[in-house]
Amino acid sequence: MSSSLVAQILRLRTQIFLRRRAWQRRRQPALPPNADAITPQLVVGAFIDEADWRQLFNQGIRVVVSLQGERHDEDTFGELQPTGYLRLPTPDFNPPTLAQLRMGAAFINEAIRAGEIVLVHCHAGVGRSTMQCAAYLMLNGMELDAAWELIKSKRIKAVWNERQEATMQAFAAALMVERQDIAGELVPKADLAATTEQRELREE
Question: Higher confidence at residue 175 or residue 179?
């Protein structure tokens, strides 16, 4: 299947979802956004329309990270523009790249440290967006399994396919190498010499 055909299918799906969302809201005017709080400042969710964004904005969310490759959020925001917005376009059912995960995690980290509440979303809010949330949690010291358990407990529908899970394993490994390098740089030279001397004594 050609990339152009895939893009057309995804755009059509977006239009169908918009109409379905509008129909649901006519039946249920107070329909809440399809989103769940992972932490008090980190919210993961699905596709948002203008009404969803208005509710989220009124709840204090001002920063958005979108992993939708099939749609932009600019039309959704309208007059209620976020103070921070990062788009990391990733095709549906695919994993973000390690660079995207790192960029997104750093962006979220900066916003949360500034006191902001951050929405991370994709189309369904089950794969791409939950991966990005996990990357943020891991950047702040949480192990992959613990991050996944927390996300799953808050966002029951969250699920990763094999490629997405493999990417998160690779992200965890990259973080581990980084931390080992940093730890090595922080050990004083005298301590390194002492450690080497102790090792030599044990070997004797």
Answer: 175
All structural domains of the chain with their residue ranges? 28-181
Considering only residues 200 and 126, tell me which one the structure prediction assigns the higher pLDDT: 126
What pLDDT does 110 receive? 98
Instruction: Select 28-181's CATH number: 3.20.20.140, 1.10.246.10, 3.40.50.150, 3.90.190.10.
Output: 3.90.190.10
Residue 161 · residue 124 · CB < 8 Å:
no
Instruction: Name the burial class of residue 174, with classes exposed (0-12), middle (13-18) and buried (19+) by CB atoms within 10 angstroms of its CB.
Output: middle
pTM equals 0.82
pLDDT higher than 80, residue 177: yes
The total of other beta-carbon atoms located within 10 Å of residue 108's CB is 27
Q: Does pLDDT of 47 surpass 70?
A: yes
> Given pLDDT bands bounded at 50, 70 and 90, which one contains residue 3?
low
DSSP for the chain?
--HHHHHHHHHHHHHHHHHHHHHHHHH-TTPPPSEEEEETTEEEE----HHHHHHHHHTTEEEEEEEESS--SHHHHTTS--SEEEEEEE-TTSPPPHHHHHHHHHHHHHHHHTT-EEEEE-SSSSSHHHHHHHHHHHHTT--HHHHHHHHHHH-TT----HHHHHHHHHHHHHHHHHHHHHHHHHS-HHHHHHHHHHHHHHH-
